[in-house]
Amino acid sequence: MSIAASAIVVPSRRLRALVALYGLCNAAAALAVGGVLPERFALAPLSALFFLVAAACLLHTAARHGKTHRIDVSGLGQLRLTVQQDVDAQDAGSAPAASNVALVAGSTVWPQLMLLLLRADDGALTVLPVLRDSVAPQQFRALAVALRAAAGRHGQTPAPEAGAPYRPHAGEHKIL
């Protein structure tokens, strides 16, 4: 059985909405601490400032346009990651550069979420959150199965600092 799989991973709309909601909650907390109830909190202006900075960072993250990634798992278990920027603006002749990557310790595969820590050949670390709304409906399961099989083929469980391929944590749930 071949474990080859390929998936286009777009930024999750649900994750973006949750980040925006959390940013709005921080802004509301800043208003409550700094404006409505400052006498009930020690250092209320400083606390409100921290909430406002957190809100600004979160709302900026939610507003910016995320990158689209393509992840390919070959039949031999090798992983390739392609970052696709301005997909509509590219002409058909130019393809984005793909890099070989490896799963590192800390990668997680759950039924609703995959957090992939991918180390490129040049040592760069990429964190790729893959939620069910980030890929086509049937690709999530196929990608999860392919990643588990690819990690199992390498059969290594190194220390987290080694950066070598490893079997992702599956938690209590099994996707297989």
Automatic annotation (TrEMBL):
Region (Disordered): 154-176
Pfam families: Cpta_toxin
Keywords of this entry: Cell projection, Cilium, Flagellum, Membrane, Transmembrane, Transmembrane helix
Ranges annotated as spanning the membrane: 42-62
Name assigned to this protein: Flagellar hook-length control protein
InterPro entries, per database record: YgfX
